[in-house]
């Protein structure tokens, strides 16, 4: 029975490391997505306005 707490600690540690890695990945992805959206925003709005003006 002495090994079960060690296994639980290992599982919790692996889960925590996974959360940290996914957090850093989501931060990097959101920064890249916001810069990409900033570049495409005016182009998309312009094409929508052209359709409305016709």
How is the biggest beta sheet arranged? none
How many H/I helices? Answer: 1
Label the structural class: mainly alpha
Overall helicity: over 70%
Gap between N and C termini: 77 Å
Mean pLDDT over the residues? 74
Oligomer state of the chains in this structure: single chain
Would you summarize the structure shown here?
The protein is mainly α. It contains one helix and no strands. The chain is rod-shaped, with a radius of gyration of 23 Å.
Secondary-structure blueprint:
Layout: H1 4-53
Key words describing this protein structure:
mainly alpha
What does this structure look like?
There is one protein chain. With 54 residues, the chain is mostly helical. The protein is built from 1 helix and no strands. The chain has one helix at residues 4-53. The longest helix is centred in the middle third of the chain and has 50 residues, at 4-53. The mean pLDDT is 74.
């Amino acid at each position: 029975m002495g090994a079960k707490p060690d296994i639980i600690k290992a599982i919790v540690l692996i889960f925590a490391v996974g959360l940290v890695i996914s957090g850093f990945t989501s931060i990097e992805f959101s920064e890249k997505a916001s810069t990409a959206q900033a570049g495409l925003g005016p182009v998309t709005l312009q094409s929508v306005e052209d359709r409305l003006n016709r």
